[in-house]
Amino acid sequence: MTVKLSASEQMTVEQLLHLLEQAVMPLVQVTASQHEHTPKVVLAYSGGVDSEVLAYGLSAFAQKYPHIACLLIHVHHGLSANADTWVQHCITRAGHYQLPLQIERVKVDKGPRQSLEAQAREARYHAFDRYLNPGDILLTAHHQDDQLETLLLALKRGQGPKGLAAMGAIQAYQQAWLVRPLLEISRDQIEQFALQYRLIHIEDESNQDDSYDRNFLRLDIIPRLKQRWPSIAATAARSAALCAEQQDVIDDEVSHRLPDWLIVPSDTNALMTESTGFKLTGFGQLSGAWQALLFRGYLIHCGVSLPSQAQLQQILSQLLAAKDDANMSIQWGDYQVKRFAGVAYALNNSELEPLASTQLSADFNSLLNGDVADMLMDVGQHRYHLNQQTRVDKPLLVLPPANSKVTLRYGGVGSIKCQPQFASSQRQKPRELKKLWQECHIPPWRRQQIPLIFYDEVLVAAIGLWIDKRYVAQTGEQGISFLIQSAKK
């Protein structure tokens, strides 16, 4: 049975229960088949009228399906003087519904140019995440009027189809599901239900503060829109659904085209294993729309926060206009886009932090002395495996002379010279380090993160790249082997 209420129809308990069943039971079956366990249902429970109605419905659902665990989570933000009273209300009502309740206390820190609403929402969802296992179902009480607010805010921000699609009734969330069973139910219908069944709920005084964008729309704008067009929430929801359909088509096409533009880690130098690159060769011949869609798809693939439309256009313009050897960098938030050898890379700022040169650890000295056979060394984003062995068929770094100082440095001055063992046999003289970086295709931003080994003040090896010919152990001689075992986790 599919529940579809008209705008004037009053919702019953049976219809509310069916709404929950329609949304939840197919996902329970999916999880049971994929994860071989029954998921739990978690309700984001504020105690306001919307979540109170949904908690009432969940109580009926839990009685009908006792094998499905249900949980209410109330987040105490500490932003209101009434927050402790709300906690007591939720405890009382949870007992009435015979549903388990978890109280989560969070701290909301509002930084400069940050929205308190957005920070509080992020804190709430972080709290919910702690209770969600793969396949679990998170319920929120968003309704049709919330959808209209979300759509109007997307218009205010100048968003495209993805933003105008607003909220989905069911969507993947982390490794779980985010479900909004009331998304086609109006605020009036929810309030009528609460009144009919005498549901006690809290009133958050901040909901009357129209300095918040959502409250401004809810209090001042949407009532006037409804007065002129009573069905605007329903028709706006249809527009959002159409935008969602269009976005699904776009996402599907991008997913088919994007792999042709990616350089995955296995295709790059081993020292780039944490980065997926985006090819720029031929990219400029695409239309501006496809450039934006594909590069945005690349950023989503990398799991980075998306730049604004203006920032994205600046990124694309600079990427396509920059010369191959240009050391360009475009930054937004915690991320940067850099270009090297015709490939763009999206990088977290934390990946680019400089590393301090240091004396090698006692563990490494133990390796040099033969006290241990091998060791793992974490440097920046990478993990190196070093061991001492006898040279048979591959170059090894000769052990340092007695009493010499062994130093680990990162990057090094470009004028330092070295003569790698991979260099052409015709090349008899050492080359400058800056030339060797180019020969190994090491991007400029990585060069200061590559560990170099010095015996006294002589560069003898770049870990994971080369050994100086003059410091390669002879066949049958003891030496040090090093390689990149894996990206550091």
From TrEMBL:
The keyword Ligase applies. The keyword tRNA processing applies. Belongs to the tRNA(Ile)-lysidine synthase family. Residues 406-484 form the Lysidine-tRNA(Ile) synthetase C-terminal domain. One of its GO terms (biological process) is tRNA modification. It is an enzyme of class 6 (ligase). This is tRNA(Ile)-lysidine synthase. The N-terminal region contains the highly conserved SGGXDS motif, predicted to be a P-loop motif involved in ATP binding. Its EC number is 6.3.4.19. PANTHER family: TRNA(ILE)-LYSIDINE SYNTHASE-RELATED. ATP binds at S46, G47, G48, V49, D50, S51. The lineage of its organism: Bacteria, Pseudomonadati, Pseudomonadota, Gammaproteobacteria, Alteromonadales. Ligates lysine onto the cytidine present at position 34 of the AUA codon-specific tRNA(Ile) that contains the anticodon CAU, in an ATP-dependent manner. Cytidine is converted to lysidine, thus changing the amino acid specificity of the tRNA from methionine to isoleucine. One of its GO terms (molecular function) is tRNA(Ile)-lysidine synthase activity. It holds the Pfam family ATP_bind_3. Keywords: ATP-binding, Cytoplasm, Ligase, Nucleotide-binding, tRNA processing. CDD domains: TilS_N. Transmembrane segments: none annotated. It comes from Shewanella psychromarinicola. HAMAP family: tRNA_Ile_lys_synt.
